[in-house]
Every structure is written in structure tokens, then in C-alpha cells.
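Priority: low. Protein: 16S rRNA (Guanine(966)-N(2))-methyltransferase RsmD. Input follows.
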Amino acid sequence: MRIISGTYKGRRITAPKKLPIRPTTDMAKESLFNILNNQYYFDAVSVLDLFSGSGNISYEFASRGTEQITSVDANYGCIKFINETAESFNMQIQTIKSDVFTFLEKTSTPYTIIFADPPYDFPLEKFAKIPELIFQNKWLEDQGVLIIEHSKHTDLSHLANYSHSKSYGGNMFSFFEEN
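Result:
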């Protein structure tokens, strides 16, 4: 995987093969950030990266000037890799080792952008739990957005606060906003 734009543009990041990850493809990531670039100033947003895995999305935000980034993953190896990579690039990324659902049930700190990349084989009930907890516990700032990455075979359009989806190859991004 590589960083698409910003201070660290072009830098390649190679995660250990033993990590249980499926990084967002460069094509899908570039398309997503083109959309976000038209809506937000990256140096003025706060980002919550759920199921952060390799930290791919967090690094992209950091490279573009975002200073308030929190990455949450249940896997110790993923958190360790994000910490090491962020330190080597001198990026400010706060990491939290936690089950995402346990984390979202705690007292919230609102974020501008919340990105969630759960396992593609999640049952629909678990996908539905993500926006439910985020909107119920007010994790989003005004004008904020929740983006869930999932397979094109998963349909989230029936969930509360769903706005729209964008498809890139086998990847889908579903956007959720406060009604």
C-alpha cells in the first residue's frame, strides 16, 4: 500500500503478512479522498478510524495534515504496527486497542469523519450496529460523516442515517449522516 497524497505522498508501507488485514485498495482510497477533499479541510477535521488494521486510512489523513486521528483495532499486532509506522513518519496518531463495539459504547468524543472498515464477512446485524452506536451516542460532530467500507455484495441502504454509496471495483463506501 502507498500514501496517495500530502506530505508523505508516494511512500510505500508494507505491513507484516501475519496481520489479519485487508487494506483499502489505492484506487478506492484515492477516490474516497477525492470526495472528502471537496467537503473538508483535512487540517481542520478530527478522524476516528475503526477496525483500523494496518492504519492505511489514518496515514492518508495524517499525510494530508489531519492532526487529530484516533485508530481503534482489537488486534495488538495492528496497533503495534500503526504505532511504529506513525513514529517513523512522525505522525500524530492515537491508537486504542479495543473491540470496536465496546469502544463505541463508552462516552463519546465527537469526530468530524468516522471511517469503519470491518471484516467483509460481518453479518448484517454487526454492520447495522456501527451506525446505530455512532448516532445513538453522538460520536459525530455537526456536518460530520460516517463512512463504512464493505463488499459490493452487502447492502446497507436500509439502515438509519444512510445517505448514499459509492462503488469502486469490489469495494463499496456507504455514507451516513445526521438526518
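Residues 28 and 86 are 22 Å apart (CA to CA). The first strand starts at residue 46 and ends at 50.
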